[in-house]
Design brief:
Radius of gyration of chain B: 22 Å
Strand order of the largest sheet of chain B: 1-2
Distance between the termini of chain A: 17 Å
Order of helices and strands of chain B: HHEEHHHHHHHH
Structural class of chain A: mainly alpha
Strand content of chain B: under 5%
Structural class of chain B: mainly alpha
Radius of gyration of chain A: 13 Å
Oligomer: heterodimer
Number of strands of chain A: 2
Helix content of chain B: over 70%
Number of helices of chain A: 5
Helix content of chain A: 40-55%
Chain lengths: 78, 285
């Protein structure tokens, strides 16, 4: 059983945009609270970048949810 | 006018342009870029001396002993520029920052190696003025254009004879700097930025770009050294070859071509690689 090729690896899906809107935060405000650039939030929301565990925990803390509630493996896309 | 005075004259002219216009207006307070550009500024009088004295190779008097045009120009440049440079740093309150950069470099600091300053990267991250350079079409143009400029210029300067077309080297250098500038703007200086100013995604993008850039640079260098090896083997089959000594003759435009081929790829490959990765990513989407 080898490692999957990069193209076939699982995508990380998330509900950051939904939770961010519910919390009344703009991308910039969320970005400021977790110490990243606002464009990075956009990349994460669109599933184009998978955040590190540290960043995921920071985002979960700001959005008031657990990491598992925010991020999950998008099996369908895999 | 003696040759020594002539050299001093164009050194002073170069320094006047550098310190009265180029450094204050173009480079500003970016000490890292200033250090890099100082190599280019020093190269100007050395290049002029090469053009004027390469063939005749007259002796230059250094009071106690004679030397050739290269060492005279270099030494005169250092002696004349040093006090001006120190005064310039003091006048703009940059002395501390400038020398701290070298101390950091010796200690292997990441920020010292980055050719973009934290301030300029911060500005570029929120910039929208240059968004025209960040479209898919513009990125493709920059990627293809910069490679065409480098490779065409290298080929042209290799073939050009001792005539007015050899002046194309100046256009070649100018085009390289223009494309380098545009490539850096397109990737918001991320490829040349220190860690401190980037977030984890940008550091990841930059690191992957350097991996790709290193692989491409390996290809460029491997091609060049293979060409050298082929030349040596080809020469071995010539009747006049002794199988041990090789004679490589270069013209001044050919030296320029080789120098700027490697310089351009060394400076530009990280930004090129970053653009290439972004283009691949946008195809997948």
């Amino acid at each position: 059983m080898g490692r999957k090729p990069k193209a076939e690896q699982e995508q990380i899906a998330n509900r950051i945009e939904e939770l961010r809107n519910a919390a009344g935060l703009s991308r910039q405000e969320l970005a400021d609270q977790v110490d990243v650039h606002y464009q990075t939030i956009g990349y994460i929301e669109r599933g184009e970048y998978s955040p590190s565990l540290v960043l995921a925990l920071k985002m979960a803390s700001v959005l008031g949810a657990s990491v598992e509630e925010i991020f999950w493996l998008d099996e369908e896309e895999a | 006018m003696s040759n020594e005075l002539l050299v001093v004259f164009y050194i002073l002219a170069t320094l006047a342009v550098a310190y009265l216009w180029f450094y204050p207006k173009v480079i500003g307070n970016n000490v890292k870029l200033m250090a890099w550009m100082d190599i280019l500024v020093t190269g100007i009088p050395v290049g002029i001396s090469a053009l004027l004295f390469w063939t005749e190779d007259p002796a230059f008097s250094l009071v106690l002993f004679d030397t050739n045009w290269f060492y005279f120009t270099l030494l005169a440049m250092v002696l004349i520029e040093m006090p001006i440079f120190l005064l310039y740093l003091r006048a703009r309150n940059l002395s501390k920052e400038y020398w701290a950069m070298f101390r950091g470099q010796m200690a292997g600091s990441d920020a010292a190696w980055a050719s973009a300053s934290a301030k300029s990267v911060e500005k570029q991250l929120d910039d929208t003025k240059w968004d025209g350079l960040r479209t898919r079409g513009a990125k493709q143009f920059l990627l293809w254009g910069s490679n065409i400029v480098i490779l065409f210029g290298t080929g042209f300067l290799f073939r050009v004879g001792d005539n007015q077309w050899s002046a194309y080297s100046l256009i070649h250098i100018l085009l390289i700097f223009v494309f380098w500038f545009l490539l850096r703007k397109s990737v918001r200086l991320i490829a040349d930025a220190p860690d401190d100013i980037l977030d984890e995604m940008m550091i990841d993008q930059r690191n992957r770009s350097y991996l790709v850039a290193y692989r491409w640079l390996t290809a460029v260098i491997f091609t060049a050294i293979t060409a050298l090896m082929v030349f040596a083997m080809f020469t071995d089959f010539q009747a006049a070859s002794d199988g041990f000594n090789y004679l490589l003759e270069f013209t001044w435009p050919q030296v320029q071509a080789i120098f700027w081929l490697f310089a351009a790829y060394t400076f530009m490959l990280p930004s090129m690689a970053m653009i290439s990765l972004e283009l691949k990513k946008s195809v997948k989407r």
